[in-house]
Amino acid sequence: MKTTITLFLSMLLLPLGVFSQKAESQYIEWRGSDTIANAMVWRGIDHLMNVEREKAYTFFEAAVAQDPSLFAPHVVLANFSWGDKRKHHVEQAKKNVEGKNEVSKLYVSLLDIDWQESDAADKRSAIWAKMYELAYDGKFVHFRYAASRKDVKDQIMELEKLAGILEQDGSNNGHVHNMLGYMQYAEGNKDKAKAHLEKYMELRPDSYNAYDSMGEYYFNEGDMENALAYYKKARMHYPASVGATDKIKEIEEKMGTKKE
Q: What are the tens digits of pLDDT across the range 113-130?
């Protein structure tokens, strides 16, 4: 009896965390039952995180055409659309998210925020924080949560944390290096910014945005020759890139050279 009482009392002194387990992480329920649509969704997510909007739009649009029951692609498509097209995607996202988990519903709730409201950024940040609380090991959520932080230093800290997690599990973290490049540049750390963007090109040599980002780096530095060279590489990897094409035109006009 004495041993039992002693053990019981000692257990009362243990931290509560020993007995309470962290709730299982949720994830945005991007996929459905159609394997073809799911493959398109995966490609869409990859291009979305790498700021390759034209390709992301194409894959997500094809995914919802293949599987009309999906909701998450409609969120992305709504953010890329205007007018009746946006209204359609918002309605579909809200309809199809019914019965899904809380993280999925929070993702769709981002569509209710008016970008013109003065506190829109705060509202979005609060939603991503809640999503990250529930989906603490979700790589997409973590990435967007990091980007939603108000302070650049907080963004960098979260992105560096995510970069380490992705590297440890063998995932490509090029998109994280891309954003870190921009964040470090914003902080005036140009050498670190350039190193991250070079790493991005190394990890994603076929990504047109990797060259676009480096082009922007040199453009901001006033080095038009290198900027033009990298924007042309971006266009070479994806001729339909509107951003690269527009920038090439702008630089060539500044330099007084003819468009190839």
A: 998 899 999 999 999 999
